[in-house]
Amino acid sequence: MNAVHAEWIKFRTTRATWIGLAAIAATVAGTGALALYVASMYDGADATRRATIAVAPLEEMALFVAQLVFAVLGALSLTAEYRSGLVRTTFTAVPRRWAVLAAKAAVLTAAGLLTGVAAMAAARGLTGAIIGDRPIPEYDEPVRLADLLVGGPSVAMFALIGLGLGALTRSAVATIGTVFALWYIVPIVAMNLPAPWDDRISSIVLTRLHTELAGVDPAVKYGDHMPSALLSPWAAAAVMTGYVLLVNLPGYLRARRD
């Protein structure tokens, strides 16, 4: 618990943490601005045009930014210590490498869970209040609680992937570049693979797992151009856990040998 407390002090007193949280808050505000635009466009359209107006769930913008922010924070929680030399103090105070990584993981997981749910809920509440009772798809029915709660595990997963890659590479640039490729490039490549591999690979990319964890079929939620989900909520949770273990175990083994 002393190690967890020390890591919590580092996390909450680091400038990067507050910059990242400010970016998430700004994105939530941005979803409100987009909702205002959609509402004004709907109000100014005729009946025929209104029937064609649709908008993707704007709260997912806040989720995507939170995922990237916490991946960066996860990476910096260790790479910044290697860069500054503080890691010598950390490992002198807590020689057991697994205890250090576990303490960092505990803090990142707790912060990611809370931030992911809060960002999703705040963005959905703001955009829903602005759009109001306008019959716009995705906003013309009550929001499912599961759709908001899965933001927490998703953000925590990205934070732990950032931590594991940071422990493995000890480079913030390499870690952030790898996470961005997994977040943006891999899903695009997967969607353009020949059938049935497009569905199979797309079902396990990082940015799809939160919808499957909530039991939502992306093809139904976003349109027929999206691959259909193949994973159940339990399978999605298992894949998320597998990603975390896959990157953190090699990172721990390298830290243990230095």
TrEMBL record:
Signal peptide: none annotated. The chain crosses the membrane at residues 18-42, 62-80, 101-123, 143-165, 172-193, 234-253. The keyword Transmembrane applies. Keywords: Membrane, Transmembrane, Transmembrane helix. This is ABC transporter permease.
